[in-house]
Structure to design on (312 residues):
């Protein structure tokens, strides 16, 4: 069935890939993004594009008008930025999420419009469980993680108090084509590929034995769409949370060597002091998303890396 979806943050790394997939499936799309003016030329012409901040309830309400479902991805996605601009990013990351849930409530005819939220593995913080499943204690150690957890709590309120249908996806380390390397807070894979292609040193923060769970962008997009499909077929209020991850731990040192090999690069691996607060082990358990959303990450790390290198 053809629908019209709102994608907040639709000009970003994950959002733009989701918009392309929705259009390819024949759906209509509205994008609300603070960067919409700057990035307008990169947005497909048939998208209804609104420039604005999700922290402003009026523009969120306008964007929600007439849509059948909402994917909420707009956020200040850098942990470091959120550390520096705590109160301001709280207004955007948690306040923006409440604005989206509230607008979905007010715009729905009989009940709120279904919403899929981009949450993050950052909600687990220093939980320490391996692998992390959704029942592990959520104990964020950053403003960013706390606000993502706050969004999940408001999703529960949407369901319990307002009859909403909301799913929050805890995204682990997403990577793939479209992720830019030019900020110190970019994902490690985009930075390593950029450096390997230029023959520059790959800098590992710490000993390189820290472990991450990488998930390819197209798998994340599939997770979003499956989550929406489940909400659309649900007649009951619902607030669910799922990990979106590959389920496999990769050492950063191994990643650096793999990227150098795949790029056939003369780059060397060097070490620098570990980042303050860097989490040692982050591996998710995708079993619940598999069982309840039919989500199976289909890309092997090497294939995802090859696709990202080809794009870079
Ligand atoms: C990821 C998310 C972040 C948040 C967090 C929650 C990304 C880009 N960031 O942060 O938004 O959800 O998880 O825990 O997905 N590293 C190097 N050299 C580099 C860059 C990074 O060694 O040039 C290391 C870094 O110290 C870390 C690992 O690589 O141990 C991954 O770093 P990242 O910035 O890609 O992502 P992460 O896990 O810190």
């Amino acid at each position: 069935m053809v629908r019209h979806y709102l994608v907040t943050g639709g000009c970003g790394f994950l959002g733009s890939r989701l918009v392309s997939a929705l259009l390819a499936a024949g759906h209509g799309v509205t994008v609300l993004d603070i960067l919409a003016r700057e990035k307008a030329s990169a947005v497909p012409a048939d998208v209804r594009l609104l420039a604005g901040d999700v922290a402003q309830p009026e523009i969120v309400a306008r964007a929600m008008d007439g849509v059948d479902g909402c994917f909420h991805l707009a956020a200040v996605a850098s942990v470091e930025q959120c550390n520096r601009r705590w109160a301001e990013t709280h207004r955007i990351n948690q306040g923006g999420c409440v604005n989206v849930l509230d607008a979905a409530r007010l715009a729905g005819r009989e009940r709120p419009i279904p919403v899929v939220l981009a949450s993050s593995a950052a909600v687990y913080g220093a939980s320490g469980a391996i692998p992390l499943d959704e029942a592990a204690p959520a104990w964020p150690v950053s403003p960013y993680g706390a606000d993502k957890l706050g969004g999940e709590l408001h999703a529960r309120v949407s369901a319990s108090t307002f009859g909403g249908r909301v799913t929050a996806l805890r995204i682990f380390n997403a990577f793939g084509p479209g992720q830019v390397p030019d900020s110190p807070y970019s994902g490690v894979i985009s930075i390593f590929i950029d450096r390997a292609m230029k023959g520059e040193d790959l800098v590992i923060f710490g000993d390189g034995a820290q472990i991450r769970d990488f998930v390819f962008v197209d798998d994340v997009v599939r997770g979003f769409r499956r989550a929406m499909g489940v909400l659309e077929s649900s007649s009951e209020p619902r607030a669910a949370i799922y990990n979106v991850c590959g389920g496999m731990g990769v050492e950063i040192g191994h990643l650096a060597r793999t990227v150098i090999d795949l790029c056939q690069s003369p780059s060397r691996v060097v070490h620098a002091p570990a980042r303050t607060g860097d989490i040692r082990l982050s591996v998710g358990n995708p079993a619940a998303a598999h069982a309840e959303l039919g989500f199976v990450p289909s890309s092997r790390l090497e294939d995802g890396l090859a696709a990202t290198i080809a794009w870079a």
